[in-house]
Amino acid sequence: MTMAGGSRTRVKWPAVAGLLALGAVVRVQAAPAPVPPAGFEQSVVVRGLDSPVSMAIAPDGRVFVCEQAGRMRVIRGGQLLPRAFGTFPTVAFEEEGLLGVAFSPTFARDSLVYVCYTAQAPARHSVIARVTAAGDSMVPGSLRVLFECDAQSAHQHVAGALRFGPDGMLYASTGEGQLGEAAQSLRSTAGKILRITPQGGVPDDGPFAHIATGRYRAIWARGLRNPFTFDIHPGTGRMFVNDVGGSKAEEIDDGVAGGDYGWPLHEGTARDTAFMSPVFAYNHTEGCAITGGAWYAPQRMAFGREWEGRYFFADYCRGEIRWLAPEAPAHAHVFAQTLLPGPVDLRVSADGALYVLVRGASLPTGGPHDPRGALLRLARAPSRGR
């Protein structure tokens, strides 16, 4: 995937290579779905987001959105606040910029917001940092860098998603920077899921904590190409990782401690038992890039109990939201097509709605930037009285 961020950069996003070499993996069933699906309604919450990448929902219902050029925006009560929460020291270029956001598990007490962004010095590299929130603004001078990844080998395959697990640890995804062999190495932070403490330290119980050295002790899983997003079930702790594929397959991988997903040695179903096969994969006749993903496990099951524990995910090019049941993951089903193009992130709110962050698209080269990024909401349609 290749992103373009900021008002001056217009690069097609995503730019997916190798689509002619299609693998026969598992096919998505039943397409296209109605918009909205029967019994549901889809609405636009806000428009005007500039190249959004990811989001997180605060305990009080506010939605924090990462705009790639470095601004964190706040949506409160269905309104995009005119003033940014804060601006982070990064530059949007291809897949680099402000990439991930997560709230402290004890946000109501400590007001801590965690971010992942591309730092520029001494060389381009991803950092995980935290800031303190004061209402809808970042406390000036509160930025603390907690963890620094290796220098990036390319502007693509950066990933940068953040999630807290039920264990209280912070998990982060990193792409392999188009350097495939780095994904297998325990001397590289690239192509990994990393796990650190909220203070930026490395837990002693990590699968490689006593094998690797230095920052590499934080490696929790490896062998990933571009794990653009992932999500952790808040009850069970099960992690599903959305790994954007190369020429063959888009993957949903079962994230486990010490797992090796095989990149660059294989893609899709593994022939070598040393590597883990995906829970679900689809080829490029069914889409081009797997992006947002979210477990349906809210406090209020507004979709209905039958949806509890299902996993929603999005394909960027098809503009489709799909779902699978983890107990029968061989088949995925189309849930809805997005009202606007380019879904990049999904979140389930406490009231049981599914929020979809879309990136929109830029006008053709020569035209002004079209900031059509938006936040969408999928919810049960209200019952109609007779």
Form type: globular
What is the CATH class designation?
Mainly Beta
Could you list the spans in which at least 5 consecutive residues all have pLDDT below 50?
Answer: 4-31, 362-370
What distance lies between the first and last C-alpha atoms, to the nearest angstrom? 49 Å
Using the CA coordinates, give the radius of gyration.
19 Å
By DSSP, the count of extended strands is 26
Domain count: 1
In CATH terms, the superfamily is TolB, C-terminal domain
The number of helices is 1
Q: Describe the sheet with the most strands.
A: 5 strands, antiparallel
Here the CATH topology equals Neuraminidase
Task: Report the helical percentage.
Answer: under 10%
Derived from helix and strand composition plus strand pairing, the structural class reads: mainly beta
The average pLDDT score comes to: 89
Order of helices and strands: EEEEEEEHEEEEEEEEEEEEEEEEEEE
What's this, in brief?
This protein is mostly beta strands and 386 residues long. The protein contains one helix and 26 strands.
Give an overview of the whole structure.
Helices cover 1% and strands 39% of the residues. It has 386 residues and is mainly beta. The chain has a single domain, classed as Neuraminidase (6 Propeller), CATH 2.120.10. Mean pLDDT is 89; it is low at 4-31 and 362-370.
Task: Please write out the topology.
Blueprint: E1 40-49, E2 52-57, E3 63-67, E4 71-76, E5 79-80, E6 86-87, E7 98-103, H1 107-110, E8 112-119, E9 125-134, E10 137-138, E11 144-151, E12 159-164, E13 170-174, E14 192-196, E15 219-221, E16 227-232, E17 239-243, E18 250-255, E19 280-282, E20 290-295, E21 311-315, E22 320-325, E23 328-337, E24 343-348, E25 354-358, E26 373-380
Antiparallel strand pairs: 1-26, 2-3, 3-4, 4-5, 4-6, 7-8, 8-9, 9-10, 9-11, 12-13, 13-14, 14-15, 16-17, 17-18, 18-19, 20-21, 21-22, 22-23, 24-25, 25-26
